[in-house]
Specification:
Layout: E1 16-20, H1 25-36, E2 40-45, H2 48-60, E3 64-69, H3 75-89, E4 94-97, H4 111-136, E5 141-146, H5 150-153, H6 159-179, E6 184-191, E7 194-195, H7 203-211, E8 216-217, H8 218-229, E9 239-242
Helix pairs in contact: 1-8, 4-6
Length: 250
């Protein structure tokens, strides 16, 4: 029941949303939750089998979703993905900048791998943001970045990933200030360790860690994104850090 003590939330029904990297892990959980709330979702990822599986699962749950195979590190793929999104959505209200890959320390991986990691985790998010702003310029919108607490924790043997996520953190803060006059909100979600394919842990190990409250579920991050998107138009959640109860301090 609505009362004077409750702020009306924004309805997601009919909202046009792009979720990058929405075929697995956090992205898939976000796409599924937003579609279940009545949003029209477009997504893309690098692998056909994972894309088809995600689309089928979300459609079977009653969600409206479409997607293609595309890599955020490729300018050609991004142009193709956003053109397909335009055709399916007919406009854009929200972008969830989620696509990312895990990268180890600079001395631990070949140059081709760390360069690709930066292209996906940092440059790709900037490129998607620019494409979104072009589509939101007249009516406003909301861009949500999925970063990582690694930007602050800065653990060893993850220097390339830390550099990318620290870049996302800094960019999101400055970008939010740039976009305010255009009525485009910018938010940053920084999860702690999440049970997903990115981290390479076995399913049984992940389930045990989740039960022990040592890691998060991808769905926990989806709920956070849902919260951010449903706040009143006068508000913006600048940054939201989410850690498991027993997150290792490293």
């Amino acid at each position: 029941m609505a009362t004077s003590f409750h702020t009306p939330i924004t309805d997601l029904k009919g909202k046009r949303i792009i979720v990058t990297g929405g075929t697995t892990g956090i992205g898939r959980a976000i796409a599924g939750l937003l579609a279940s709330e009545g949003a029209r979702v477009f997504t893309f990822g690098r692998h056909r089998m994972e894309l088809d599986d995600a689309l089928k699962a979300i459609r079977n749950a009653g969600g409206e979703i479409e997607g293609i195979v595309a890599d955020v590190a490729s300018q050609k793929d991004l142009a193709k993905a956003f053109a397909a999104a335009d055709k399916f959505l007919g406009g854009l209200d929200y972008l969830i900048n989620n696509a990312a890959v895990s990268v180890d320390g600079l001395a631990d991986v070949p140059e081709s791998e760390w360069r690709y990691g930066l292209e996906v985790d940092l440059t790709g998010q900037l490129a998607c943001s620019m494409a979104a702003v072009e589509r939101m310029a007249k009516s406003g919108g909301h861009i949500v970045f999925i970063g990582s607490v690694s930007a602050d924790n800065r653990g060893a043997h993850s220097s390339v990933y830390v550099a990318a996520k620290a870049g996302v953190q800094a960019f999101a803060e400055a970008f939010r200030k740039e976009m305010a006059e255009k009525h485009i909100k910018v938010s940053l979600v920084q999860p702690g360790t999440v049970g997903s394919d990115m981290h390479g842990a076995g399913r049984a190990t992940e389930r045990k860690q989740i039960r022990n409250e040592e890691i998060l579920r991808a769905e926990d991050i989806a709920v956070a994104v849902h919260y951010i998107l449903t706040q009143p138009s006068r508000t913006v959640v600048d940054r939201l850090d989410i850690s498991p109860l027993k997150q290792d301090s490293d």
